[in-house]
Amino acid sequence: MPRPRxxxxxxxxxxxxxxxxxxxxxxxxxxxVAEQLGMSTMALYRYVDDREELEQLVVELVLSAVDTxxxxxxxxxxxxxxVMVGRLRDTVGAHPSVVPLTLTHRHRSPSVLRWSETVLGIxxxxxxxxERRVIALRGLLAYVIGAIQLEHLxxxxxxxxxxxxxxxxxxxxxxxxxxxxxAGVDADQEFRGGLTILLRGLDT
Length: 204
Known about the structure:
Layout: H1 9-23, H2 30-37, H3 41-44, H4 51-63, H5 77-92, H6 99-105, H7 110-125, H8 130-153, H9 159-165, H10 173-182, H11 187-202
Helix pairs in contact: 1-2, 1-4, 5-7, 5-8, 8-11, 9-10
């Protein structure tokens, strides 16, 4: 495929995302992205400095699709937080292999910063300020990132749940019983149920 005479960062980011979605983070290299773009690895260095810059570009590409507009103020703060967290989950969940990069590059992503700013505004209106607001924001980010990874890497519908349900009752009575219940919990129920528990804790 002939190499384009000029590339934009958006094109490079799109190619990087294609590589990650196909091969996972382990497959992300300058060479792989260059091949996706139909150019030599050395030619790609004319557009980005290194893999770290590729990571920053792809994080912003994915997260730029998140709607950071504050939800309507005529609902409770908990409902608005659920909306914001749900938006993040829906967008990032479409590209689960990118999730670890969001932690590394969150402070460089304008979209993450805008999402966080909106969430902080809602928390502030709810009277959650100071150190408590710091912990609340970090807790929400940790929850959504962890939940996405669990959903895609260790889903309750997977073989792991079956294996745990078959553990010997004498040694693992609670694990075995819990796994049998887990088989009937879908991903959305798991995510929203966990978020509800977290928000109840913030509401106390």
